[in-house]
Amino acid sequence: MGRIFNFDKMITPIMIKILFWIGILVAVLSGFFMIGFGIVSKNSSYTPIIFGLISLFLGPIIIRVYCEILIIIFKMQESLVKILDYFLIEHKNNQLTNREPYKGTD
Q: For 11-15, what is the mean pLDDT?
């Protein structure tokens, strides 16, 4: 529980997954609603049906891409934390053995 309050563990990726499924549900339901509205409306326009089909098929794809972009940000943060932990452990080991840290080639 302390990791959550210290922001060591992120809860936003879980919330993004929940919002993804809610977004998929909204996109599909709104697509069906627009198609149904286009069928029962007295106008002879096919515009609601076309927009309903677009919402039905492209809506989930757009929501998926958006959520993946958000998840990538948190994956990058996790990777940076792992890299930092690795270098902190390496620095601690260097201090314990009294050897020079790796400086790279010149």
A: 85
